[in-house]
Amino acid sequence: MSTTSSYANGTTAAPVVVASTTEDANAVEAVKSHHAQLAGALGVRVDRLVRLAGGGSDDATTTAARDDLVAFCATELLPHAAAEEGALYPVAAEDGRARLLVEAMIAEHRVLEGLVRDLRTTAGPVLAAAIGTGLRVLFETHLAKENDLILPLVAGDPSRSLSAALAGMHELLGPDAHDEQDHGPDAAGGCGCGGHDEADPVLDVRAVPHAIRHATVFGALGAVPRGGSLVLVAPHDPIPLLGQIEDREPGAFGVSYDERGPEAWRVRLTRVV
Question: When comparing pLDDT for 259 and 25, which is higher?
């Protein structure tokens, strides 16, 4: 039982959003980048849980992966959803064309909350993996609608200011990359779960739009605990990306190649600090 993280729409190009001001254009890019980081971080955690549940790992190991996923949802995903309802959605709903869409997006937030509650209380590893997979699929399609429908509607209207509505909203714009310190369970001393070979999540970026590809990887790497690995699948040797990773966190990751083309490059990134 395994899965591979991928971008929800399965395309390699993201729609271009035409904003009415430079400030709004910058806000759109910040939100979309944060979305990509959230999707990457969520995908890695779900993938780890699925691989552990399907690989026959002990209950304590799988429970630790589930608890890490629940904690991420409680501290990052659900606050992001709440911030949208407080800042972004009211601005979008001012346009009558978007009111039904906004209501549907809010209803999806309630479903996400329910899935997190179910994930927190479920006892079986297979059921937890199934709930986590459903949560990831819903969240990715939800983000795609925000990126492709809500953000263009707000940013393209000169009578409204997206940048002003989102000013200072950490939950929507994301933290500064260098302020991100949490790297998953037991970041100070390793996740303690063992069995990293079977649990190593896989992030296939070939289907991720190029504009948000690196942000997705950065978000995913933030979920890798010390001693854990992420297998990155790319359509070419990702040397520029590896350079950016080193610039962001010098010496944090060991790099090895599981496969070197010609159709795919599989790079194993192991957190050492």
Answer: 259
